[in-house]
């Protein structure tokens, strides 16, 4: 889809060109990803640098600190993250593994906080990064406790393959979501990345729908998801009660 002709539309297209694993980008790549002419990309990047939304890094640019500062003011993110961090710290201490907090946005999960473990795997996730919901434990935990139209939108968009073990058959995903609703725990069995497994559980609002999810992730050779699942589920239930109360 071509970016909007307005300044705001072009700015959003340019900022959205950055992916989770990008440190910085050059003008040519920014133009290609955003769909903007290179001359427009150059002028717009200068304006965004002046506003603090982008930062120069030699001849390249990266996302600016002001974006992070603005993001911290988003009410859902701030309230959920602030309430979750103490429980995430306890969960990391108990499991000695990486703990994630994520929310659903569209068909992807966005990671609000990640508490890493020493010696843990280099995970494909990062704070502010995104992954397809259906290949992650947190994403499946959220989808299992989301409104039917949310799940339908994910299924109708097509299930992309992130690894050899990603579930791409809609029927299989629907069955898995039914199991997650019964058990309250979702698993990633090397579906988001080779060798990475996790157990996740939803954080629920007063209406019973997911606000987000917590997970514990690690190497498949070290972490046994079924063993940490009760601790993850307990932490998510505690966080749900904290937010409701």
UniProtKB/TrEMBL annotation:
Tree of life domain: Bacteria
SUPFAM superfamilies with a match to the protein in the record: GAF domain-like, Winged helix' DNA-binding domain
Keywords: DNA-binding, Transcription, Transcription regulation
Any Pfam family the entry gives: HTH_IclR
Residue ranges of every copy of the IclR-ED domain listed in the record: 66-245
Keyword Calcium: no
Matching PROSITE patterns: HTH_ICLR, ICLR_ED
Signal peptide start and end residues: none
Domain HTH iclR-type: 5-65
Protein name: IclR family transcriptional regulator
Organism of this sequence: Actinomadura meridiana
């Amino acid at each position: 889809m071509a970016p909007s002709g307005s300044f705001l539309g072009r700015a959003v297209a340019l900022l959205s060109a950055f992916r989770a694993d990008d440190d910085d980008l050059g003008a040519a790549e920014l133009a290609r990803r955003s769909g903007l002419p290179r001359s427009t990309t150059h002028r717009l990047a200068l304006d965004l640098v002046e506003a603090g939304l982008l930062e120069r890094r030699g001849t390249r640019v990266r996302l600016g600190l002001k974006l992070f500062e603005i993001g911290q003011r988003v009410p859902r993110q701030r309230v959920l993250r602030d309430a979750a961090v103490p429980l995430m710290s306890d969960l990391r201490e108990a499991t000695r593994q990486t703990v994630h907090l994520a929310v659903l946005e569209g068909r992807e999960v966005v990671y609000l906080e990640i508490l890493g473990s020493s010696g843990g795997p280099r995970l494909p996730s990062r704070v502010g990064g995104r992954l397809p919901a259906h290949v992650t434990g947190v994403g499946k935990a959220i989808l299992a406790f989301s409104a039917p139209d949310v799940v339908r939108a994910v299924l109708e968009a097509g299930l992309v393959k992130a690894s050899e073990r990603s579930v791409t058959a809609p029927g299989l995903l629907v069955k898995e979501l039914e199991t997650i609703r019964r058990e309250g725990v979702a698993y990633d069995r090397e579906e988001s990345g080779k060798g990475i497994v996790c157990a996740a559980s939803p954080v629920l609002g007063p209406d019973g729908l997911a606000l987000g999810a917590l997970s514990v992730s690690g190497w498949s050779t070290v972490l046994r998801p079924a063993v940490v699942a009760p601790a993850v589920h307990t932490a998510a239930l505690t966080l749900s009660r904290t937010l409701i109360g």
